[in-house]
Amino acid sequence: MQTLFIIMTLFFGACNSQVVSNDGNTPPKTSFYDLKFTSIDEEPINFSKYKGKKLLIVNTASECGYTPQYADLEKLNEEYGDKIVILGFPANNFGGQEPGSNTEIKGFCKKNYGVTFQMFEKSSVKGDDKNVVYQWLTDKNKNGWNDQEPTWNFCKYLINENGELVKFFPSKIKPTDQQILSLL
């Protein structure tokens, strides 16, 4: 029963999260473009390749109520890929909803949602073992202003063309929501 309470608390906390944004006057302390991470295909990706592009970074999971957002992410990628790059980070941090291996995750995404946007290897996005990308996204000493960790699967972070984190969107905000589209 206590486990159910904790899960319900996490879920409703995720649903009630608010959009958070930069005031526009706080530059990052360290560069997003210095980061590197491994793709779901085990290829190293240097984030300097994303210079001059807007990025939407999303923590994903295959067994979540928000999993259908994969379709919205792919639609955003197809329709606005010239304006924004989608980066997906599978994680098992919330309710054990991403139990699969990288191969299983990649197959699931391709088969069920036709995902063609860049996916990265499964990793942690919260807590002491979070990956380097989420360390940067959630540490105001690195990104200049934000310390908001993901509150559930499918939280979104928007980075502008200068590599500056500008907004955090909770899970309930779909990738095709006007709040995101208006910033493209």
UniProtKB/TrEMBL annotation:
Annotated PROSITE patterns: GLUTATHIONE_PEROXID_1, GLUTATHIONE_PEROXID_3
Keywords: Oxidoreductase, Peroxidase
Any one GO molecular-function label of the UniProt entry: peroxidase activity
Matching InterPro entries: Glutathione_peroxidase (IPR000889), GPX_AS (IPR029759), Thioredoxin-like_sf (IPR036249)
Active site residues according to the UniProt entry: C64
Database matches in Pfam families: GSHPx
Family that this chain belongs to: Belongs to the glutathione peroxidase family.
This protein's name: Glutathione peroxidase
Lineage: Bacteria, Pseudomonadati, Bacteroidota, Sphingobacteriia, Sphingobacteriales
